[in-house]
Here is the input.
Amino acid sequence: ETGVTQTPRHLVMGMTNKKSLKCEQHLGHNAMYWYKQSAKKPLELMFVYSLEERVENNSVPSRFSPECPNSSHLFLHLHTLQPEDSALYLCASSQEAGGRLEQFFGPGTRLTVL
Amino acid sequence: QQQVKQSPQSLIVQKGGISIINCAYENTAFDYFPWYQQFPGKGPALLIAIRPDVSEKKEGRFTISFNKSAKQFSLHIMDSQPGDSATYFCAAKEESGGSNYKLTFGKGTLLTVNP
Here is the structure.
């Protein structure tokens, strides 16, 4: 595996379900990000982790709970979601959080909340 | 408040033509302006980026033009090809600021290049 991988690629869940999205980066990076991509809206930064420490929580509802157990893995735990949470969730990584350092994106998880 | 405004929302160009996508920003502290390209089923990938110390940057068929006084920047794709059909996002960041990991994105432009 190379780059940034995300699983599952597609997820359909009911509003009462609990599920988790997984991201893994194979680039040796120290920073990881979760973004939400909705149709006709700008990408929204949700969370940033640097060396497994959360450095940004961009006013995201508590029904989204991130976890970064090590610098290569990032999870997004989902519970009691709303239909408006349906979107493409993108994970990204960079060598460090910030500066002149490119963010590399994964292919995303397409989430549908029924 | 949308800090980076991108236009047009969609664009259709004939093969060999020039594609032009425009972005305008409000925050004068932005000092890094990347463009991302996203194909269906893939995440965005960095295409080209510019910093305000230059007014133009060219990489192959892709050129960014930057106008600091007007707070605008644009992407030009010369000799557009069907393989360029994708969604393009402009973005901006304060590289020197405290939250220097935070990219602010435009809404995206869906480019279709007809053969």
Q: What stands out?
A: Chain A has a mean pLDDT of 92.
